[in-house]
């Protein structure tokens, strides 16, 4: 969790911004982490509780992850889109939170989530190389559960270069010491907007 907050702070460059509200929000988040502890709390829940003055939840896209090639690994991924309430950027929408949870994974093994440019799990295409989404690894616990939560800068339904709709979310299993992207694809889901 602390890594997520540091990533968010560095991406927003709050210490050089003139936006005093964002600076104060960062101080409040860090103070809350110090007082109540942030371990075990998702970025989504923390930002929902503390970021109302700057970001308003616009919509959520939930992706069902199905097993791939008999892995048995399933799960759910959530993209949360917020509207920037800052008067200088009225109307801009950006996904701020990406949360993924898997189950039936191998205990102690590392996994990572990637967005692919294809349109189906049978033909996911290639890894979508877009600014605003970097994959991070996470490790399955003793019950075969794994979760990841971090802040991203993508969009939903904009037909822009950062639009996630129609793309494929793939969970990789790490093999050896190589790059996670070289690992076996174990779970997958198409990113669609459902009303």
Compressed to H and E, one letter per element, the order equals HHHEEEEEEEE
What's the Cα radius of gyration?
Answer: 17 Å
Through-space gap between termini: 30 Å
The number of helical segments is 3
- Detail the poorly predicted runs: 1-21, 47-52
Widest sheet: strand ordering:
5-4-7-8-1-2-3-6
Question: Major beta sheet, specifics?
Answer: 8 strands, antiparallel
The average pLDDT value, as a whole number, equals: 77
Shape: globular
Find the structural class using helix and strand composition. alpha+beta
Strand content: 25-35%
Query: CATH topology of the domain at 55-190, anyone?
Result: Immunoglobulin-like
Helix content: 10-25%
Structure overview:
Helices cover about 20% and strands about 35% of the residues. The chain is globular. The chain has helices spanning about 1-10, 20-35, 45-50, and strands at about 55-65, 75-85, 95-105, 110-115, 135-140, 145-155, 170-175, 185-190. A hairpin with a 6-residue loop joins strand 1 and strand 2 (about 75-85). The longest helix has 17 residues, at about 20-35. The protein has a domain at about 55-190: Immunoglobulin-like (Sandwich), CATH 2.60.40. With about 200 residues, it is of the alpha+beta class. The protein has an eight-stranded antiparallel beta sheet. Residues about 1-20 and about 45-50 have low confidence and may be disordered.
Summarize the structure.
This protein has helices at 2-12, 20-36, 43-50, and strands at 55-67, 74-84, 93-103, 110-116, 137-139, 146-154, 168-173, 184-190.
